[in-house]
Each structure stands twice: as structure tokens, then as C-alpha cells.
């Protein structure tokens, strides 16, 4: 019995063990939390994508991509407790941000101050990504961090999340949910609300919110004027039939040049808009362009406005691109409206007339301008007979215009019309007054007030001022005191304001949308085709003269745009912020006028105005427009603003002169150095010296190197980690392009580490690319591909997969494949870049891609290489990139030699000798490109053998000096050809073996086969 009992116990134990083995393992508490995180975060990703697609919201694409990456890797983390706590908090913040967009006073669009907080949260999210990635088993990056550094990073992540909790919870009033089922339900509700919000967008309700209209526009235009789609046909248009028919007839002639002249308020713009929609004009002119010139200060601004409408990429001077673009169009009609804004100032008149002359030289272009006055601009053969300056409307036309607006035909209306002088704008204003106040009331006030208004003499201008003044005294207008303040503000804003800007800029105007409605009802303002609130030029001038704006009104708007510029500047290039770029571009004319109000010595807030003007100049420079005109106003004021702003001004002077030369830079350098003696600001000092280093890079290499050495020294004296990484990357980049590859590599690695400690993904990618560039020249190809792929991964997390930095990392990867003779892989990458980057939007990377394709074709002897190389060369020439232009010419020589053995080589040799002479003292890359082709005797006819042999020795010496490994072994192989030709077979064999060993170590296929 006892034995049986023991057997039973053993049997039962075995069965229990087998049962336990076959039962599924219950997930741990931490694993359940991870699954809840994945379940809670997954539905957020499509919501974020829809939000970004609909509203072009800054930072949201980067948040979406980084969150998706965190979800993908969350199950493989080791330090699960800390990581899970962070990810749970992310989930809460993301729902709050989505809710904030939906509940915003301007739905889908947040004010710049709140965008700053979202940018900060994006940085925190990248810190969390860095921390979590360091905890993944498959990642070796943890070894780069000390244990104490990981603890610091974790605490920074926690603090960033707590800051986000405080900001978004308070601002959005979001109810933080802990139950996962409730969060899923909330996500579904949010999705429904977001879809309703998006579907509610329309041209009638949206201003410069991210409606579909803006997704198809150039991201960086001069101002709102530049975006002008063809304006609509005037709805009320009487009394100009004869002028309209005459202009339509003139436009049927060859090369018409027409000016619509006349006093302000006479209806010139309305007539031009009617011309635009005339059937005969539509039938003849395939391309009709209507460009308002109100925002253009100079001829350069004017041509930028035209270029923006032509969808040209911004540039410091678009004159020639505009001329080329218009010349290439079939039957173009260009209308320049309100040209007097740019032509009247004597300082800009010559430039405007020169531009008109160039436009008039395009034989098939029809040119029509509208201008106040009776004088035609010079340097153009205007079509004769001239169109007479516009006169007032006939009585019948004025009456019909009045009735179309007021629908009030009585004796009082006829008396009021007598006072209008039949000026179209005055008729319009008077009719709208009648709509608001009634004809009897308006007539009574007119009789009372006209004497004082017209006492200085009766003329059309006085008539206009009187009618505007009547509108300003209307009971409807005066019932809202803020309406006058809003009109004062509009009087200096040629770009007008959107509802978004009216609501978000904290203007000291009560019931601002009601004030807007009053301005619209009284016809003192109007909504343009982009739904921006504007006032006509005659009204703006009247208000500026009689009711000038005060600084207290301007200051909040300046602060609003200053925050927007700061947002752009802080995240320039590092995160996707296209939405802020568009909004700034829509207001460039406004910013110019706003800052002019503040750039006065007596302004107590002068420093902020100067700082904002600096930021505007940086935006202008970084978006390709070059130096902003306000820099001239800043120069005499900057010494009143303290040493820091003085240094910033000097630094900007060097930045805007990268493509040209300052006559005598040394006084500026000395001035900056003297200010640093009292500033003790190593960050500002390092920024100055890095800028100075790049300024000198192609002018004085020793001064450039001294400046960059100073940067490295300064970086080691400040605790600002982010600035360290940025400045070290600049220095490393300089040493790379200067041919000091080991130095550049060492500094780039330091920059990477600092960027990792700060979780600055963009700067880490930047430094990785520079290290990769140095590695390429040092012949370290194997690991470098992985470095570049890591850089691209980090850029993707910043939503920068279509940025120049991303393409340039890809270009380096293609260069590695080319060096290893992996032509198909290299071509695939270059083709991708060429297709994604157009010659118009990203000419630099497009040209590099074409050059890469041409270099591959030249190397393998393909006949089709030359068109790609020639297109690349033309682009580089237009961009004033001399090195790249010469490289194209060097590759073209190789292409000619491989495809035509019988050609005369004198010109080809001179081309390479010219390249070598230009590059010898300061451009190692071009020197290597030239010597590689000069020293390869197999490329040249036998008559040129000794010439090539000489350069083979020079190639060897230069490659050895620069430690360029591939070039060194190519030179050794070339010398093998020389020794073999001289029947020194033993030496030839030794050199070929040395070359073969080198090519094999670098995995270079074609070089090894040749050796």
C-alpha cells in the first residue's frame, strides 16, 4: 500500500508538472503595461498624421514618427520599469495635444507661444527615444553612455514630461484618462471631431489656415501679395466699358505695353481685374499673372513678388530667373498693380525702371501696369496712343454703382452723389454709409462736417478725404472704439491680417472680430482672395496721415511675429516647421513696416526691435532671399543696443557675405574682439568665429583655420551642450572640406557624443554625416555605410526625410558605392535624389545627383553621361559654386577621353590644368579630382603619356600628404603603368601588388581587377 501511495504521488506530480508546462505563461504586470501602452498609442499615430496633413502643424510629423518608432521597439527594452513610466506619460501628453488643437479658438492652429511648448515636448520625446534606445538589447549605444549620464538623461526626460503635463493640462483642460478602454473611446471620438474639423475647412471660412490652397504654394514667398491667385472679376463695375474695350483692343497688338493711370480711388485696380477676365484677353493669353506691388519696397522686392507668382525658388536677386521664366512661357500677360508703391521713391525708381525695361525686351510678353498719377515710367516704349488717365464716372454709372450697393433711389441719394465727385471709391464708401446709417443721417452729417474738411480747397483728393472721414464718423463705426484702432493698424500693413493673426496676437482691441465686421460693412476694409483683412491704399494713406498708429498697438503684433521668428530660428533645419515658414512669408511686407515703426532712437524698446530685425534678416538669408533691406536701418542704431547686439550684427554681416566679399573685414573682426573682452559669452564668441571661419574658407585658409581652432577652444569652456554639438559640427565640417580628415573625424565624434547627451537627434545626424565624409577620404568604407544609415534614421525621426541633410547623407553613401565600383547601387541612390529634389526647389542636391549619375556613366564609358554633367554644371554655375562647376568639367574630360580616342587633347589638358591651378592651395577635393584624371595614362593617347606620367607622381605626393587612401592606391597603380611602359617590370609588379592590396582592403572591385 505504501509503495502504491508513493507511485501515485509521483504520478500526480508528473502530471502536474506536465500540466504546468503546457499551460500558457501569464504575462507579468510590466508586460501588461507595455501592451496597454501599445494599445493606447497605436490609434494616436493616424490622428497625428491627419492633423499634420490637414494643418501643416509644426513638430507633429516628428512627434508621429518618433512615437511610432518607440512603439516598434518597446517590447525589446531591458530597463522596463523606467521606460514604461516614460511611455505611459507620453500617451497622456499626446492625447492632450490633440485635444488642444481641436478645442483651440482657431481650430487646428495654435499660437506661436504654444507651438514653442510643442517644440520643447518634441525635444523631450527625442530624449526619451535616446534613453529607450539605450535600453534595447540589440543596441550597443548604451556603451557610449556612462551610468551616471543615463540617470541624468532619465531625469531630464521626467522633467520634460512634467513640464508638458503642466502646460498642456492647464491650457487644454484635458481630462487625463487612466483606463485604456476609455482612452480608446476617446481616440475614436477625437478622430470623428478631427474629421469634422478638417471637412469644415473651406475658402469661405479659412484664412491662412492650412487649407488645400496653401499646400500647393511655394513655402517661402515674399508676402501675401505674392501668393495672389488670379483675382476675381469685379462684381460691381460700371462706367468703364470704353476703357475696357480700348485696353482689350490694345492687348491684341504685338508687344503691348499699357499703363492705367489716374488719381487714387479712381478704380484702376478694378479696371485691371476686369481686363484680366475679358473674353478676348482670356482667348489670347495662355498665362495671365496679376501681381500686387503694395508690399514691394525695392526693385529686388518687386522681382521677388513676380518670381513667387511664377513659383520660382526665392533668391537674393531673381531678375534673370524671372526674365527666363517669362520668356519661356507662351503668350504671357503680366499685370503689375499699384506699381507706384515701388516706383515713386527716388531711391528705388531707377531699379524699377530698369526691371520694366528688361520685361519690355521680352517680345511676346504683354505688360500692363496700374499707377497713381499721370506720368509713365521711363525706359519703356509704351503703346501709343497712351490710355488717358482715368476720369470720374459718368452720373449714370455712379448712380448705378450706388444703387447696386445701397438700393436706395431717392433725392437724398442724388444729393449725396453730387458730393462724391463720381469717384468710384468715394461712391463706394458713401453707399456703404447709407447702408449702415441711412441716407438722411449721412446727408445731415455731410452738410455739417464738409466745411471743415474741405476748407483748404476743393479737389478730388479733398473729396476722398472727406468721404473717408465721413465713414470714420459713422455711428456704426464709432459704436466700437476698437474699429479705429484696427484700421490704424491695417494702415501700415500691406499684407493685411488673417483671422488667425487677429485672434492670436493679443492685440489691445476689444471684440476684434466685431471690429473687423464694422470695417467690412463700411467698406473701409475688405477680405482679399486669401481671406486676409486689408484696407485700400488711399484709405491707408488717409489714416496714416490723420490718425497715425501708436506703438502700443504695434508692439503686440511685433511680439507675435517675433515669437514666430524665434520659433523658426530655434528649430531651423532641425525639425519640420513648414507651417511657421509659410506664415512668416505671408507677412514679410507687414514685418518691414512694423519694424520701421520701432527702429527709432527714441523707442524705449529699441533692443527688441533690432533683435527682431536680426531674426527677420536671418529668415531672409536662410530662405534664399539674401540680405534684408532693414539691415541698413539697423546699422546706425546697433551701437545704442549694447555689445551683444553689436556682435550679432557683425556676425550677420559675415553670414550674408558668404557668396561675396567684404572690402575690408579686419575692422569688423577687431570690433567684435573688443566687445568680447567685456561680454564673456563663449557661446556667442564661438558662433562668431565659426561664421568667420566659413567666410575665410575660400579666401584665406590660414585665417579660416585659426578661426575654427578658436571655435574648438571656446567650445571646451562652456556648459551649453547643444551649442557645443552645433559648433563642433561646424568646425569638423571645415576640417573635412579642408582635407584634414583625421582632425575632422575626431571633432565630429566629440560632437556626436555631446549631441547624444542632449538627445539632439539632428545634430547627432549632422556630426555622423561629417564623420562619414572624413571616413570616405580615409578609405574606411565598410563601417561608414552603417554610420550614414544611422544618420538617415535620426533625420527621419525629425521628419526630415526630404531635407538637404538627408539627401547629402544619401549622396555620401552613393559616393562609397561609386568608389567601390558598385555602380548600380550608386546610380539607384543618385536617381532617387534627382527625382525627389527638383532643379527649382532644391537645385544644389539636384545638381549633385546629376553630377553623380554623370560620373558613373563617365567611369563605365556610357555615351549618355554628358547631358547630365552639362545640366549639373549649369546649375552649379548659376549658384556660383565654382568647385562643383570645375568638378563637372573634370568629369566631362574623362567622358570625352573614354568615348573618343581620336580627339585632340590640347583643350582637355588645359581644362584640367585650369582646375588644378584654381584648387591647388585651398581645395583638396577638386585637386584630387583633377589629378586622378591627369595622372591616368590609360585615358590619354600615347603622345600624352609623359604628360600624364608627370602628374601621376604629383597625384601620389598629394594623396599621400592628404592621407586619401583610395587616391593613394590609384596613384600607385598609375605609377605601375608608367614603370611597365618603361620596361621596368619588377618595379611595376611591386607597385601593382601594393595597389591590389590596398584596393582589396577597401573592397574596391574595379581597382583591384585593373591592378
Automatic annotation (TrEMBL):
Annotated InterPro entries: Adaptor_Cbl_N_dom_sf, MLKL-like_MCAfunc, NB-ARC, P-loop_NTPase, TPR-like_helical_dom_sf
GO biological process, one term: cell surface receptor signaling pathway
Domain (NB-ARC): residue spans on this chain: 243-327
Pfam families given in the database record: NB-ARC
Domain of life from the UniProt record: Eukaryota
Xref: PANTHER family: HTH-TYPE TRANSCRIPTIONAL REGULATOR RV0890C-RELATED (PTHR47691:SF3), REGULATOR-RELATED (PTHR47691)
Descriptive protein name: ATPase-AAA-core domain-containing protein
